[in-house]
Each structure stands twice: as structure tokens, then as C-alpha cells.
Design brief:
about 260 residues, alpha/beta, eight-stranded mixed β-sheet, 7 helices
């Protein structure tokens, strides 16, 4: 399995000022990568920098400000060289009832959770595509499958984000097989957006970093939930063929 190394370039983690994003940035730095961390709060990014045992470049920006994303990513490439990895982690979960969730507030959440993923991916691809190499990992969710109360914007945006991953691959894979894009569902975490008894983000980040550094083309379009690959549904003909050939598809494991 081909892996990304610090020699390939630097890594970008969005939403690196707290929670899972902070844990991902810290562990990437520990693996020897120069990390660019984005977030809306400069002071929170400086707290992340203090925890990193390695180069961490704090870049305060809002991923919903698309011009700021363009400029911030271009400046990071100018400073650090090739961008090897982008982890689209930034998101909001406002937990507002439908009658509190005005169309303006709904669309602002969409601009961050969906528009931000597109804007950051587009900006990263300006550097990755000419080199024909790169890795994009989108931190995703199954919130759209069974939406909780007061989660309309989050559920819709995160579901659409998984569609976006597939759309990016449809556009890119034939031309740029060396650019690998996939989704990762870290599960319920003990973070500000998560639940008190959730998984510590440091544990989830170990799986996320391991997956993010894998760039085999077979990972394009895959979905991992926590540390296990979720295999795509198989039709009856495929199941019968597997039975005849005595094949048993095995999901990849990050642990």
C-alpha cells in the first residue's frame, strides 16, 4: 500500500483549533509532517500549535469565505511547497429547532459544511492536479440517514458532502488516478460537537491519520467508519459468483 511521507509535501487540516482537528494536527506533526491548520479562532490555533511537536502553521480563516480559502491555500503552497494531504474536518453543528433555523442560518451552515469542503478541495487541487498526486480525506457522518431533532442543516450538509466526494471522483479519477479521495466517519466523539461519553478524539485521530496517509487508488470512493472499511452493497449475481469462487470480501482495518 502506497503511503504519503513528509517528503511528499505538507498537510492541511481544516478546523484544527479544537477537537478532532486539533488531534489530527498534533498526530500529523508527530509523524514528521509540516501541518497547516485552519480555523476561525486565531487563539485556538495557537493553542494547537503549542501542543504540536513539529512545524504547525496557524492560518486563521473561515472555510465559508471562499476568497480567503483561495488566498490562504495559495500562500501556504508558496511558503511550504507541494501540498500532499488535505483533511476536510471543519464543520458546525448548531443544533437549532426548525423554527429557530432561519433560511439564512441554514444556508450559513451549508456554506461551511458543504461549501467549505468544496472550496478547500478546489483550492488544494490547484496544486495537486498539475503534479498528478495528492490525498483528500473528508470527515463525514451518517447524520443524513437518521436525522436527529434540531439537526436539519447538519444532516443535509453532511449527507450532501458524501455525494460531493463521489462527484469529485467522477470528475477526477480517469485523469488523475494519483489523487485519492475518500470519506471517513469517526463516530460520536467527546468533543464540543459530540457527546460527553463519546470516543476521545485522540483515539479516533490515530485511525484518521493512518487512513489519510494511505493513497492507494483502490481507496478512491471508499468509506471507513472508525477503523473499519464499509464494503459497498453487493448484488445477488456478485454474491453467487463469490460463493462459486469461494471468495469472501474482507474490509480493511486501520487498527
Amino acid at each position: 500500500m502506497t503511503k504519503i511521507t513528509p517528503a511528499d509535501g505538507f498537510a492541511v487540516v481544516t478546523g484544527a483549533g479544537s477537537g478532532l482537528g486539533r488531534a489530527l494536527a498534533v498526530q500529523l506533526c508527530a509523524a514528521g509532517f509540516s501541518v497547516v491548520g485552519t480555523g476561525r479562532r486565531a487563539e485556538a490555533l495557537q493553542e494547537t500549535a503549542a501542543l504540536c511537536d513539529g512545524p504547525f502553521d496557524a492560518v486563521p480563516l473561515d472555510v465559508a469565505d471562499f476568497e480567503a480559502v483561495r488566498q490562504g491555500f495559495a500562500a501556504s503552497v508558496a511558503r511550504h511547497g507541494p501540498m500532499a494531504l488535505l483533511i476536510n474536518n471543519a464543520a458546525v453543528y448548531p443544533k437549532r429547532d426548525l423554527f429557530e433555523e432561519t433560511p439564512e442560518l441554514f444556508w450559513h451552515s451549508m456554506a461551511i459544511n458543504l461549501g467549505g469542503v468544496y472550496a478547500c478541495s478546489w483550492a488544494a487541487l490547484q496544486d495537486m492536479a498539475p503534479r498528478g498526486s495528492g490525498r483528500i480525506l473528508n470527515v463525514s457522518s451518517y447524520a443524513d440517514m437518521a436525522p436527529l431533532p434540531a439537526s436539519a442543516a447538519y444532516s443535509v450538509s453532511k449527507g450532501a458532502q458524501r455525494v460531493l466526494t463521489r462527484a469529485l471522483i467522477a470528475d477526477l479519477f480517469d485523469r488523475f488516478p494519483g489523487i485519492v479521495i475518500s470519506d471517513w466517519l469517526p463516530g460520536a466523539l467527546a468533543t464540543g460537537m459530540g457527546i460527553p461519553d463519546g470516543l476521545p478524539p485522540e483515539i479516533a485521530a490515530r485511525w484518521g491519520v493512518k487512513l489519510a496517509l494511505m493513497r492507494d487508488p483502490s481507496l478512491n470512493g471508499t468509506i471507513f467508519e472508525r477503523d473499519i472499511e464499509l464494503l459497498p452493497p453487493r448484488g445477488l449475481k456478485t454474491k453467487l459468483k463469490d460463493a462459486v469462487l469461494m471468495r469472501r470480501p474482507r474490509p480493511r482495518n486501520l487498527s
